[in-house]
Specification:
CATH topology of one domain: Leucine-rich repeat, LRR (right-handed beta-alpha superhelix)
Order of helices and strands: HEEHHEEEHEHEHEEHEHEHE
Strand content: 15-25%
Length: about 300
C-alpha cells in the first residue's frame, strides 16, 4: 500500500473509520445516529503510526478525526484527560463532528441521590461526575457550529442536568446549524413510573428555552431526536424544530411529559415526521379522541403508552 496514490489511500482510511448505523435504525437514513465507540476512535491513531507517509496522509485528512467518543476511560484519578478530545477537535478542522458522550458505569448499583426511597447506605460515587461532564461540554461548545450528531448517555440525572445547563446558553444564542441527530438518554426506565420527576431540585433544566418567545432556527436541520428520561422545554422544541423525520420520547415522569397541546404543536411543526415512538411518555390525557386529534397519519408510529 506504500505505492498507492494519496487519493486512494485517503479513501481506504475513510472506510476504516466508517461508523455503522445504530441497531434498529433504517440504514437509508443519513441523519440517524452513528454507532461509534472507543475502538472507532483508535483507528486514526493506529493508521498514523504505521509509517511517515501514512502519518502525513492521516494528519491531513480531517474526516478521520471527526468522530469523538468520550467515556470514563478518559478519567484517571478523578481528573479528565482532555488530550484526545482537543487533538480530535484540532485535527478535524472544519469537518462536521459526530460526538458520543457515554458516562454510564457498568458497576452502577441503581442508587441515586434524592431519587426513590432513601436508604442508610453510602451514596454511589460515580467516576464520571457532573463536574467532569461540564468540563467536557466546555471543550466541545466552541465547535457547536460543527456538531452533526450528539449522543449523551448517563445512568443518573445529575451528569445529564450538567450537560443540558452547560449547553443551553450557547444553543439558545447561536443554535446548532448542522445538528441532524440528537440523542439524550438517562438510562433508567424506572423513572417513568413515578408521578413526579426525581431528583426534584434538578427538575428544571430549561433546555432549548431562550427566555423569550423567539426560538426559531436553533435546530434548523434536526431530523432524528431521541429523548429517553430527558425532558426539554416542549414549547421551545416545537418552535425550533421543523424538519424531524424520527421522534422517540420515553421514560418520562408524569409531571415532565408534554401536554396534549404541546404534543400537538410539536407534531404540527414537523410535517415530515415519518416515525414516532412513545414508551412511558406522551400526553397523559386518555380521552378517546386524543389519538385522532394529536397524531396525524404518519407512515409509522408505535408505543406502549399511546391512548387507545
Amino acid at each position: 500500500m506504500c505505492e498507492l496514490p494519496v487519493e486512494l489511500l485517503s479513501e481506504i482510511f475513510d472506510l476504516c473509520v466508517l461508523a455503522t448505523i445504530e441497531p434498529g435504525i433504517k440504514p437509508n437514513d443519513p441523519s440517524a445516529p452513528l454507532n461509534i465507540n472507543t475502538e472507532t476512535i483508535r483507528v486514526p491513531l493506529t493508521l498514523s503510526s504505521v509509517s511517515r507517509r501514512w502519518r502525513q496522509v492521516a494528519l491531513g485528512q480531517a474526516s478521520l478525526w471527526a468522530n469523538i467518543c468520550i467515556t470514563e476511560e478518559l478519567i484517571s484519578q478523578r481528573n479528565l484527560d482532555a488530550r484526545h478530545i482537543t487533538t480530535c477537535l484540532a485535527r478535524s478542522r472544519h469537518h462536521p463532528l459526530t460526538i458520543l458522550i457515554d458516562s454510564r458505569d457498568p458497576d452502577w448499583d441503581f442508587t441515586e441521590a434524592d431519587v426513590g426511597i432513601e436508604v442508610e447506605t453510602a451514596s454511589y460515587n460515580a467516576l464520571f461526575t457532573p463536574g467532569q461532564m461540564s468540563k467536557v461540554i466546555a471543550l466541545l461548545l466552541p465547535h457547536l457550529s460543527r456538531w452533526k450528531s450528539l449522543t449523551i448517555l448517563t445512568d443518573t440525572w445529575a451528569p445529564m442536568h450538567a450537560a443540558l445547563t452547560a449547553m443551553n446558553p450557547s444553543v439558545a444564542q447561536t443554535g446548532a446549524p448542522q445538528l441532524q441527530s440528537l440523542v439524550l438518554m438517562r438510562c433508567n426506565d424506572f423513572v417513568s413510573f413515578t408521578d413526579r420527576f426525581q431528583p426534584e431540585n434538578l427538575k428544571d433544566t430549561g433546555f432549548l428555552s431562550r427566555g423569550s418567545e423567539e426560538t426559531a432556527d436553533m435546530l434548523p436541520h434536526l431530523k432524528h431526536l431521541t429523548l429517553a428520561g430527558v425532558h426539554v422545554d416542549w414549547d421551545a422544541l416545537a418552535s425550533s424544530s421543523a424538519d424531524l423525520t424520527f421522534l422517540q420520547l420515553s421514560s418520562h415522569a408524569s409531571n415532565v411529559r408534554p401536554t396534549v397541546e404541546q404534543f400537538h404543536r410539536l407534531l404540527q411543526a414537523n410535517p415530515n415526521l415519518r416515525e414516532l415512538c412513545l414508551s412511558g411518555s406522551g400526553p397523559q390525557d386518555r380521552e378517546a379522541d386524543v389519538l385522532q386529534r394529536v397524531i396525524p397519519s404518519y407512515s409509522h408510529s408505535r408505543g406502549r403508552d399511546l391512548p387507545c
